[in-house]
Specification:
Blueprint: H1 3-24, H2 30-35, H3 42-69, H4 73-97, H5 105-110, H6 113-147, H7 154-169, H8 174-202, H9 207-217, H10 233-249, H11 252-258, H12 264-299, H13 308-313, H14 319-353, H15 363-391, H16 396-420, E1 423-425, H17 430-448, H18 455-461, H19 463-471, H20 480-494, E2 496-498
Antiparallel strand pairs: 1-2
Length: about 500
């Protein structure tokens, strides 16, 4: 398929998004930007959150991982189920009871200013790096298959895409994103289903036949009972549970959409509906991965796991059928995670760092400040994408998960300590704990995962032998975030005392 034709489809898709943004951002204000005036439809929020949770990384990474890890990823998804139950019935009631706009305001109410700032800082750090890494990955795919052929440099592609995202989120914020996410999730899921059907037919069978072939290859194995493996079932399930709690329940981007629903009951229905649909969608991605590997084996295709889906979808065989569907589905998977990230980062920085609600001035002046923050984050995203291009790390997906485990751990520890204990903290020492805890967690991960780091470094420092003595072959996986949270919780206990009857005055 001509790259010009594919580009025209991409351009048309953006035009549709901008039309939706124009319609939904009329008469917008700061309240509609931050929490959609608390009038969002819970069904739209639930459906749109699917796209935000999956992102473009899931779209190319989960199917690509089936060849080496079978369906083990579904163990993580089962953990998500447990985590989302905790969010729906523990965290959401807390957020609604306190009528929060930023969820990190809870930390100030519970512990003080430093806890509030620390929570917001780790969210901003993690979401900025994670979202830009995902953005880089998808832009790279578009660059290889479309824009390089048109002679458009990577930097120009990244700049134009960010400008377009900026255009349709600048005014409406959450109010706009709920509708654009719904549209984009629909595009992603439709593309996923069509791709499975077309590639299944290409290998000369139907769905049941393809599934039988996947079973023969061992792809459909879900549970791994090897205790020392990084994908051991219990580790994956527990890791998935706490990843869901931290990266959804303690994440301003995801909770900003949930608390935009008018009532707690509606928000809980949103969360549980979202959970059910997400499990089905993730299983479909694994099915797609199995079908792709069956087709690749039949045609003798050998590429890197993350290149498998785009290579097959955009090959001469499929370019005229699912090629354009893949491109539209890919950008549909990308933008819910990027537009929401920029919007939530703007909200968190404005409320948690700049204290916009406490500033004197008119609504117009506050809106002008919020728009400056929004534009600044778009610039930061552009710079970060260029940094990822310069690094050109082939392990970027593993890096995203590792970085999330390191940066969301302090959030997990802070919220758990606030909810599970009645103790107060020495506010001045909170930063010390939340900085030391991720560093200790990272050190433990380095010891248990020698392959992640340069072999010469381990050899020169004797870390290889030390790793074997301490861990005996055990490899830390997705439970890194839980380990980090436990270390943070322990550190907070050491700087705590029996709670005194003090009240921190905050503005939500």
């Amino acid at each position: 398929m001509s790259p010009i034709l594919m580009f025209s489809f991409v351009f048309g898709y953006f035009a549709l998004l901008l039309t939706v943004a124009w319609y939904t951002s009329r008469n917008s204000n700061n309240e509609s930007f931050f929490i959609g005036n608390r009038s969002s439809n819970w069904m739209l929020v639930a459906f749109g959150m699917i796209g935000t949770s999956l992102s473009g990384v899931t779209f190319v990474s989960v199917p690509g991982g089936v060849g080496s890890s079978n369906f083990f990823y579904f163990q993580v998804v089962l953990g998500y189920l447990l985590g989302y139950i905790v969010i729906a019935f523990v965290l959401l009631p807390l957020y609604y009871r306190m009528n929060l706009t930023s969820i990190y305001t809870y930390l100030e109410k519970r512990f003080g200013v430093n806890a509030h700032k620390a929570g917001a800082f780790f969210f901003i750090l993690s979401r900025t790096v994670g979202a830009t890494a995902r953005l880089y990955l998808v832009i790279s795919v578009l660059q290889i298959f479309i824009f390089n052929k048109l002679g458009i440099p990577f930097e120009a592609t990244a700049l134009v895409i960010l400008l377009l995202i900026l255009l349709y989120t600048f005014e409406g914020g959450v109010k706009t994103i709920i509708y654009t996410d719904t549209l984009q999730t629909a595009g992603m899921l439709l593309g996923l289903i069509i791709c499975i059907i077309v590639i299944t037919r290409a290998i000369g069978t139907d769905f049941s036949g393809a599934f039988s072939l996947m079973m023969d290859k061992g792809y459909t194995q879900i549970f791994n009972w090897d205790v020392k493996a990084g994908s051991f079932a219990l580790k994956h399930i527990l890791g998935g549970m706490f990843i869901a709690i931290a990266m959804t329940g303690l994440d301003q981007e995801m909770m900003q959409k949930n608390i935009s629903v008018k009532t707690l009951k509606g928000s809980q229905k949103n969360m549980m509906t979202f959970t059910f649909v997400l499990m089905i969608v993730n299983f479909l991605f694994l099915i797609l991965g199995g079908v792709l590997y069956l087709y690749a084996a039949e045609k003798g295709i050998q590429v890197a796991p993350d290149d498998l889906f785009p290579t097959i979808a955009l090959s001469e065989t499929f370019a005229g059928s699912i090629g354009i569907i893949f491109i539209i589905a890919l950008i549909s998977a990308l933008f819910p995670s990027v537009d929401g990230a920029i919007t939530s980062l703007t909200s968190s920085f404005s409320i948690d760092i700049l204290n916009i609600h406490q500033k004197e001035g008119t609504e117009k002046e506050k809106k002008r400040l919020r728009l400056k923050v929004h534009f600044t984050f778009a610039v930061v995203f552009f710079i970060m994408v260029l940094i990822f291009k310069w690094i050109n790390d082939k392990l970027i997906i593993d890096f995203i998960l590792k970085f999330a485990g390191v940066t969301y751990g302090p959030l997990l520890g802070l919220f758990a300590f606030g909810i599970l204990t009645k103790r107060s903290l020495n506010d001045k020492l909170i930063w010390l704990v939340v900085i030391i805890s991720p560093l200790l967690s990272l050190a433990l991960d380095m010891l248990s995962n020698p392959a992640w780091y340069e072999a010469k470094l381990h050899t020169s420092l004797g870390l290889q032998n030390l790793s074997e003595k301490i861990f005996s072959g055990y490899i830390i996986g997705n439970e890194l975030i839980l380990i980090n949270g436990i270390i943070t919780f322990t550190g907070l206990w050491l700087i705590s005392a029996k709670r005194q009857q003090t009240v921190h005055v905050v503005h939500t």
